[in-house]
Design goal:
Layout: H1 9-12, H2 17-30, H3 35-51, H4 57-60, E1 66-68, H5 86-89, E2 92-94, E3 97-98, E4 102-106, H6 113-116, E5 128-135, E6 139-141, H7 147-150, H8 157-185, H9 187-203, H10 211-225, H11 228-239, H12 245-269, H13 273-281, H14 290-293, H15 298-303, H16 307-321, H17 327-353, H18 357-363, H19 365-391, H20 399-408, H21 410-420, H22 426-446, H23 452-479, H24 483-503, H25 514-529, H26 545-549
Antiparallel strand pairs: 1-6, 2-3, 4-5
Helix pairs in contact: 2-17, 3-11, 3-12, 8-9, 8-10, 8-24, 9-10, 9-11, 9-13, 11-12, 12-20, 12-21, 19-23, 19-24, 19-25, 20-23, 21-23, 22-23, 22-25
Length: about 550
């Protein structure tokens, strides 16, 4: 799931002096969103689209229709997926609705095809005991485009679904790795490394000849290359002025959704999993050029004391934007950065003398309650968001069209959230979105299979509402916690959310109905939990535990 449209909200409220000084320079001198920022936006949008391709396992490991091989009636060299005699040998009601993993047992011991008396290409029903079914010994596949065929995963739905879960575990590992690289060597370095790693490691999957090799490649690629999104958001949101951060954040989320749509288009054009791997990952190798094409974060330079390089970037921004940067502003920025380091050192000393965070939370029950509630929101959101994307390819109809439609509907969801959260409020928007998503899951369960258009429409509305939640929850969660502990408590909720994203790829193995029962139930509960937290629209972002306890519940 994507980063937020408002990860920089604390900066907008002037929590950190260094950030306020930087914002003043953007607003009053170099420009909040000039040609320099637009150029950077285009570069980062391109890599954001590619990050949407990282869900390729949905197609490379897609479910394939199978049936039992009937050696009594067919040879391995000449097999038809739905021969005329199919329902004589396999339980089913039609040529489109039959058992994938079972067949009828034979009534006699067949020595060869002549004994089986396969007359004129038919396979007589008398050959089988239709009251006795057995599991398949071998399978016939409708297509050979997925790894399901190469690794013979026909009826092993758990191993097939496990591919996505293991990849998601890799994204969990990527968080501390990307964070360390970003803090140690810079945001630009972290971005370029993640994007390039995703390209070359993903490309190695073309030569994966075993299930284990394929899964290991998915995990390693995710661990070393799935930090693109957070790097992109940090770089672009630190570069634009406060006025543009929400729409720019929504634009980046839109690019991610468009990446998923283009993934569906490419997979439709190149269905074979090995050729699809080449088509998706070779272009990503060019992201190595981002080391030179993208400028490093000014805020990171200032944090590391590299003031000359920070000034050089700001001067370049002013030159491209055709504005003027005063020497006085550069000196003030330098001074504020130095002061910020001193304040951070003091804060660390004070924190060392304070009680443990768990003790503070126990003393502040309202904040403790939020620490219990917010992880449920996050688990629910990631579980439903990823679950709906993954299960869309298993619906009736064209799986590529389904996936593209379900991905495209995210775009209006992000923009509706951006429009309503600042006007209506966080709680009503998120609660209604959760409940509306829950209703969509219930309605979808009761729709007949033959109503494809209605089913897809309801499914898309479910994805629309959970996309509203995705955008809103990134804004609302950090607003509930005090400044000093905001990052840690927000990270805790986000980390717990990975439980949902890790579990979501397994839902196709739960059956046809259970996933949507879970989606609907969790969304209902998450919406109800909104009643236990305060409204933060118009409220000052809390600096202390006392402030967090006293957020006005009526605003």
């Amino acid at each position: 799931m994507k980063a937020s449209v408002s990860n920089e909200r604390t900066e907008d409220h002037g929590v950190e002096k260094n950030v306020v000084e930087m914002d003043r320079i953007l607003v009053e001198e170099v420009g909040q969103f000039g040609w320099y920022q637009r150029r950077s936006l285009l570069l980062l949008a391109a890599v954001m689209v590619m990050s949407g391709w990282q869900a390729e396992y949905i197609f490379t490991a897609a479910r394939v229709n199978t049936r039992c091989e009937i050696p009594e009636c067919e040879s391995t060299l000449d097999q038809e997926f739905t021969p005329l005699w199919l329902l004589n040998a396999i339980p089913g009601s039609s040529f489109t609705d039959f058992e994938n993993c079972q067949r009828f047992n034979t009534t006699i011991i067949v020595i060869n095809t002549t004994v089986a008396d396969v007359i004129n290409g038919t396979c007589p029903a008398a050959l089988f005991d239709q009251s006795n079914t057995i599991l398949c010994d071998s399978y016939v596949y409708e297509t050979t485009d997925s790894v399901v065929y190469d690794y013979d995963l026909a009826c092993d739905e758990w191993r097939r679904s496990l591919i996505g879960s293991i990849r998601t575990v890799g994204t969990l590992v990527a968080l501390p790795i990307t964070g360390y690289v970003s803090d140690r060597w810079g945001r630009r370095t972290a971005l370029a490394l993640n994007a390039f790693n995703s390209g070359w490691i993903g490309l190695t999957r073309y030569w994966a000849r075993t299930y284990i090799g394929f899964v290991v490649s998915q995990f390693v690629e995710a661990a070393l290359g799935s930090g693109i999104t957070s790097c992109v958001f940090v770089l672009i949101l630190e570069l634009v002025g406060p006025k543009y951060r929400v729409p720019i954040g929504a634009t980046m989320n839109t690019c991610f959704a468009l990446g998923q749509v283009t993934l569906g288009l490419i997979a439709w054009a190149v269905p074979n999993w090995q050729k699809l791997t080449l088509a998706l990952y070779i272009p990503q190798l060019f992201t190595i050029t981002y080391f030179w094409l993208v400028a490093e974060s000014v805020r990171w330079y200032m944090c590391k004391g590299r003031y000359e390089k920070a000034e050089k970037v700001l001067i370049e921004v002013a030159r491209v934007n055709k504005t003027v940067l005063s020497e006085k502003s550069l000196q003030a920025l330098h001074k504020s950065a130095t002061e910020e380091k001193r304040r951070q050192a003091q804060a660390r000393e004070q924190q060392a003398q304070e009680p443990l965070l768990l003790v503070l939370l126990w003393r502040n029950k309202r904040v403790l309650l939020r620490c219990c509630v917010t992880p449920v929101w996050w688990i629910t959101t990631t579980f439903i968001y990823y679950g709906l994307s993954i299960n869309s390819v298993n619906m009736s109809g064209n799986m590529y069209v389904n996936y593209m439609a379900v991905s495209a509907i995210e775009v209006p969801g992000y923009w509706v959230a951006a429009a309503l959260l600042g006007r209506v409020g966080r709680k009503p928007v998120l609660a209604i979105a959760f409940w509306a998503c829950s209703i969509c899951q219930i309605v979808y369960l009761f729709l007949p299979d033959n109503l494809y258009g209605a089913s897809l429409t309801v499914y898309m509305f479910g994805k629309f509402f959970i996309s509203v939640v995705v955008a809103g929850i990134y804004i609302y969660t950090p607003e509930l916690f005090p400044t000093r502990y905001r990052h840690r408590l927000f990270a805790f909720s986000s980390m717990m959310g990975r439980i949902g994203s890790i579990t979501a790829p397994l839902t196709p193995a739960f059956g046809d109905s259970l996933p949507f029962i879970l989606f609907g139930s969790l969304a209902l509960v998450a919406g109800l939990l909104m009643l236990f937290t305060p409204e933060t629209l118009g409220a000052r972002v809390p600096d202390s535990m006392e402030d967090a306890n006293n957020i006005n519940n009526k605003k």
